[in-house]
Design a protein that fits this description.
Blueprint lengths: L2 H9 L12 E9 L5 E14 L6 E8 L2 E8 L5 E8 L17 H4 L9
Antiparallel strand pairs: 1-2, 1-5, 2-3, 3-4
Amino acid sequence: MDKIKLIEAEIAKKDVPNFGVGDTIRVLTKIPEGPDKVRLHPFEGIVIAKEGSGAKTRFTVRKVSYGEGIERVFPLYSPNIERIELLRQGKVKRAKLYYLRNKVGKQATKIEGKEEKA
């Protein structure tokens, strides 16, 4: 078997929740604070894009903080990510939610959930 595929298969064994575009998640990243100290920094927002495949999968999370939109791109299998928590699932009809960049207030964060529609 190809060496790259072996490495990707080993990396993909990491326990990651099944989330998609439109879901609200919290990503806890490791921030080194000293030679032997690490703190967890949460970044909570809406997933607006997922791209790539295998070990190179990336996802973009957007949040609005103090009226300013912040986007961050995370590699899915990064060793700096401690865990990903799925807070709320959203039902969307698009693969990329870049139109949320132009929305303000509740329109930017209100994505109808799968259970809310019923």
